[in-house]
Amino acid sequence: MSKKQLDWTVLSILAIGAGCGLVYEYLLSHYAGRVLGAVEEAIYGIISVMMIFMGVGSFLARKIKNPFAGFAWLELCLALIGASSVLIIGGVFSLAALFPQILAETFSIPPDLIPRGGLVATAESIAQWMPYLVAALLGTLIGMEIPLIGEIRNQIYADHLKNNTGSIYGIDYLGAGFGALLWVFLMLSLEVSLAGALTASVNLLIGLLFFYLFRDKIPSAIYLLMGHAVVALWILQVFSYGSDWAAEMEDMLYRDKVVYHVNTRYQHLVITERITDPTKPTVLTFFINGRTQFASNDEHIYHAMLTYPALAASARHDKVLIIGGGDGLAVRDVLRWNPKQVLLLDLDHDLVELFKTPRMEQGKVVNQRLIAENKGAFNDKRVQTVFGDAFVSINTLIRDEQMFDTVIIDLPDPNHPDLNKLYSARFYHKVFNLLAGDGAMVVQSTSPYHAKNTFISIGKTIKHAGFKHVQQYHQNVPAFGEWGFTIATKNGLSAKQRLQNLTLWPVDDGWTTKGLVLAAFEFGKHFYQLADEIKINRLGSMVAYQYHYSDWQKEMGLYRQ
């Protein structure tokens, strides 16, 4: 092999390694967001930590006397830690979750007296920091690649002037960019331990290729080859059993048994099951990215309060728009009102498919109960689904001059900056243009108890968007606690007045009553006392996201004066 061919091979190895580094960065930030819950903080935190420690690694690389041996061992270490990173983090979180139970069983402590401070708090703190510690370690190793390759190229050319530093950084950026594309378009929907193992296997292969090229410059080669054999066996184990191990560790993070989990392009979906009475169906709880979406034994309360007041306050129910609600439960309740058309806008096609189309695995339909919960709503001919970001998709409806008798917005809380825009005055003004003059719009509005500022801000933002009457109501949903909703009308009477004027309760859903719904509009005497200080969420302001983050931090006891 000529010197030029050898150099391009080395640069290619660097590019592939850079791509692997980017995948690790995204994989860790993605997984950290799942286990830590604070998605935005975790993603940016992991990326920042890795970038800082890549700089540390660059400095440490100068301590390595033999760059050829250093790079070969470096790729081996990256393969080992990359394949193990998710399992390490998941294992620590699982042990931290089990620790209180172990203490209770060891010392016969009643469930209501299980300790939460001391060693338990320390274990939880270690678990919270573990993703960042793994990120720091991987970042340090990744940061050592470029300096080592630079020194290796110096020795290949034996002339610093010919060793163009721009080539190193250029090929590194190209490789990193390709790795980012690979993650977004291929690996994002893979199970995280499998994605880690795939990336680690690439590190292992380029390490072997590098060893083959420069074996005469690497001492103690037998130990390096033995290390490759051991790590290769470990990666094969992760390929074969990693998903099962990760699932078992994930089961420990939930109170109930996990019966199904899947990654979509946009989120991580988990279904758990609990037996409360052998004579009754088990209770299914649905989680998205670790956050409860519904529990089958009480979701009827949430969805009745979400849909019924708005539908009852609307003059007609021929055309209904639902934004979010990919589980189809709101659609199910809307269909009780015999609409002519129901249009659902949702981001995640795979989520809707989980609640629409039977999925056969190991000889049984794993999502039969989910389809039964929404009574096959998505298979009703009156129901149409459109997939995409609602903030953009809604523009097509406005352009086509569509009008809807009722609009139901059932989106996740504004716990991520990407969701903030869907709680903005700009978005609600778009909805304003779609709502019939005698219709009503309702928005799920987080908890007025746990996230009061967010709740009030949503109501003020909707009012700012142009709606004439904006009112808020709440109901206790055992799976969530106290939960809130905001209802708005464009013209005429307010929604509450319309409900009060009803002489006949339109639809018997088996739970809702007129008195119960009207009582939900009542709040404590001083609930809105400081409402004037609460800001409106304008597009780009991040007000809803910041309120939500602050409210829940206080609720978890993480607030500091």
Give a description of the structure:
This protein has 3 domains: 3-251, Growth Hormone, Chain: A (Up-down Bundle), CATH 1.20.1250; 257-288, no CATH class; 298-555, Vaccinia Virus protein VP39 (Rossmann fold), CATH 3.40.50.150. It starts with a helix and ends in a 6-residue tail after the last helix. It has 19 helices and 13 strands. A hairpin with a 2-residue loop joins strand 7 (360-361) and strand 8 (364-365). The protein is elongated. It has a 7-stranded mixed beta sheet, sandwiched between helices. Strands 1-2-3-4 form a 4-stranded antiparallel beta sheet, covered by helices on one side. The chain is α/β, with parallel strands linked by helices and 561 residues long.
Structural key phrases:
3 domains; alpha/beta; 4-stranded antiparallel β-sheet; Rossmann fold; Growth Hormone, Chain: A; 13 strands
Query: Given the C-alpha coordinates, what overall shape results?
Result: elongated
Alpha-carbon distance between the two ends: 65 Å
User: CATH homologous superfamily of the largest domain - what is it?
Assistant: Vaccinia Virus protein VP39
Low-pLDDT stretches are: 557-561
CATH class of the largest domain: Alpha Beta
> Under the CATH scheme, which architecture of the largest domain would be assigned?
3-Layer(aba) Sandwich
Assign a percent range to the helix content. 40-55%
Into how many domains do the coordinates divide? Answer: 3
What is the CATH topology of the largest domain? Rossmann fold
Instruction: Kindly provide the radius of gyration, computed on alpha-carbon positions and rounded to a whole number of angstroms.
Output: 28 Å
**Order of the strands making up the biggest sheet:** 9-6-5-10-11-13-12
